[in-house]
Amino acid sequence: MAKDYDVVFIGAGHNGLTAAGYLAKAGLSVCLLERASFAGGAVNTREVTLPGFRHDTGSVGHVMIQSNPLLLDDELGLKSKFGLEYIYVDVATAAIYPDGSALYVHHDVDRTCESIAQFSQHDAEAYRRFYDMAKPMGPLLTQGTFSPPVSFGSLLTQLEGSEVGRNLERIFFMSAQDLVDEWFEDERIKVHLLKYSTEQMSYYDATGSALALFFGVPMHHGYGTGTPKGGSGGLADALVRCVKAYGGEVRLDCEVVGVQVSGGRATGVTLASGETVRARRAVICNVDPRPLFNEWVPAEATDPEFRRKVNTIKDAPFSGIMQHLALDAAPRYTAGPEAEKAYMIEPTPWLADFKGVFNDLRLGRLPHASKVPLWVCNSQHDPSRAPAGKHVVYLWQYVPYRPDGRDPQAWDSIKEEYADEVLEFMRGYVTNLTPEMILARAVHSPYDYPRMNPNLVNGSVTGPRNDLLQYFSNRPIHELGQFRTPIESLYLVRHAPRTPLTRHASGVRGACRNARKEGGPSCGRCSPP
To answer: The whole model's pTM is what?
Structure first.
């Protein structure tokens, strides 16, 4: 049995749902085929501890996507028609230091500078100058996020034409450490800013890691920190409603096992059930290129050299262990009631200890001496996440994929013990985190991630590694950087930077634009080819 559509999607992650929404609105028939029992990929909210406790098991805060016309201009009507409602928190982050002091990052730049000034007047003034310098770079950086990016060579040529561009060109080749050392003096401020790079699963001293600050700082102050009411998965749910409203289909528990190629062109997919789903115009893949070209596309359909390059795609150099907690009451913090207003609580070590954590990770060791956790209690800002008076917590800590050099499967026997160690560390920052306070817990290790979502190859929660090697038109390799593949009518939707701990969720329209080039109608927003 076979059914025909204009466009067939492999995977129903939020990037695929976004592209499908634009194409369906343009009048094309679309079908998304999702292996899991829920849509959204890593943008989901589920009851993984107790009934009524709604946990984000992937992305937690949405910042970068706020600049996307998808939300900024509500192009698909997700807010006005399909029930998406964002809750915005004024205090994005409380960075709490070992001495009990805290830095508060507000949506308002002036209030953030006031918080920085308690530690360093110099750094408060520098932060304001840094924001003013970084703000106009946003459009240059995001041009390759919501549409196909220009080649890296062309981008550098464009940047040479303005002072802003030349500053950005220099930053491409700097590490986050280089950048913060140029601008700031106090180690508290430095560590907080270095975390923008490590939260992208990159080392703070890696070439190109400075770019994370130019996505992070202006986005937080320019667009705010938002989370969908009811959970991160609210974005995916609204996208599903949108796709269906325009006549599209989203099929869950539906595993693709092959891409059909005829005459050098993708014509459809084969399901595990044996069913064929045909695509008249395009097949769009919302998964990592490696399973696509190693498992699903016939080997004879691509050149061996291309497949070799696909298999050189780099993963993130480290991962993390996730804990989902169901709490009996609201958490209280050593930094005082002010910290309860923050979306993210970040216990932040001194600079030497921070570097020590990443020295451990470089050597494949579990960090024991110090920790750099991220704690988010969404229910303090959105009571719909938990039963009355109860709370949900999202707790992340950086760890290697291969713990202490062992096979990643070793995580199955050690994850509970290491999660206990992280909890014990957090008790130095959360005053009422007693065993009785924790009603239930779910722990996900780096080895669990690819089992939960095959897209997270080798526990790499960002998808392909986020650094200059795989940015812009080289994401993840040059041959795939324009969303096209060597096979006609087979496209990718970009792996946008996205991690379980991240403040980011993104969305792309590039596949929509490329499908239009093959003869489909315009979505109404993508620029002419």
So the answer is: 0.92
